[in-house]
Amino acid sequence: MIQLTTATAIEKAITKARTVKPRVRVNCFGSYTVTNKTTGATYTVTCEKRDGKRFASCTCRAGELGRACYHLAAAVAAHIQLATEQASH
Ligand SMILES: [Zn+2]
Question: How far, in Å, is the centroid of ligand 1 from the Cα of 89?
Fold first, then answer.
C-alpha cells in the first residue's frame, strides 16, 4: 500500500506504464485488473481514500513491497479519469 501524494512520486511508474501499455479493466470504482498484454500476467490494483488521503496497492511483488509499479500507475490514471467523470455528472 502506497500513499499517493503528487504525480511526481509515481512519475517513473507512469512513464513505464506508457511504454508497456497494460490493459486496465475496471472491476468497480476503486478496483482494477491490470493485464500485461505481453506476458498475460494479471494483477489487482485497489485505490481508496482514507482520512482525505489517497492510497493505492497492487498485488504484484513490487506492489507488496510498497513500491509504485506501473500496474498501479496505469490503474491510478484510470481511477482519476473515472473519478473526474463521476464528479462532472
Ligand atoms: Zn504491480
Answer: 31
Q: What percent of the chain has pLDDT over 90?
A: 83
Instruction: Take residue 45 and report the three cell numbers written for it.
Output: 490494483
The answer to whether the Cα torsion of 47, 19, 86, 34 is positive or negative is negative
pTM score, two decimals? Answer: 0.90
Helix axis angle, 70-88 to 11-20, nearest 10°: 90
Give me the residues near ligand 1 (ion), CB cutoff below 5 Å: 43, 58, 60, 63, 69, 71
Strand runs labelled E in 1-89: 2-4, 23-28, 31-35, 42-50, 53-58
27-51 pLDDT per residue, tens: 999 999 999 999 999 999 999 999 9
